[in-house]
Amino acid sequence: VQLVESGGAVVPPGGSLRLSCVGSGFAFSGSVLTWVRQTPLKGLEWVSSIYDESGNTWYNNAVKGRFTISKDNANSTLYLQMNNLKPEDTAVYYCYWRGLYDYWGQGTQVTVSS
Questions:
Q1: Which of 14, 20, 72, 110 has the greatest number of C-beta atoms within 10 Å?
Q2: pLDDT tens digit sequence for 47-78
Q3: Nearest to 38 by CA among 113, 102, 108
Q4: What is the mean pLDDT of the chain?
Q5: In whole angstroms, how far apart are CA 72 and each of 29, 58, 60, 75, 91?
Q6: Residues 20-24: what's their mean pLDDT?
Q7: Residues with Cβ < 8 Å from 62, sequence gap 6 or more?
Q8: CA-CA distances (angstroms) from residue 43 to 29, 93, 110?
Q9: Calpha distance 48→59 (Å, rounded)
């Protein structure tokens, strides 16, 4: 199993970014996939999850209305569209899949700063 994130960058407050996570080695379609972020102060924080079999998406209240999670099963890619970014969104963002074990990507750094 491999999860590889990309798309992190330095952006000003109010800016947008789209993170990507390419998965391999497991049944990407039909899996619940999750974005989690980590900061030294807050530790790990759940951001959003998606289960495309049911069409369900879930969001942390802190990002609801600003972030959108989606999947492209044909390309085994998970996305996180982040709009109206705030300094408190600064973190390392990971994609995560719970299979037989917990699987994490290597993370991508998002920094929101003027």
A1: 110
A2: 999 997 777 999 999 999 999 999 999 999 99
A3: 108
A4: 95
A5: 9, 17, 22, 6, 24
A6: 96
A7: 45, 88
A8: 29, 12, 15
A9: 4
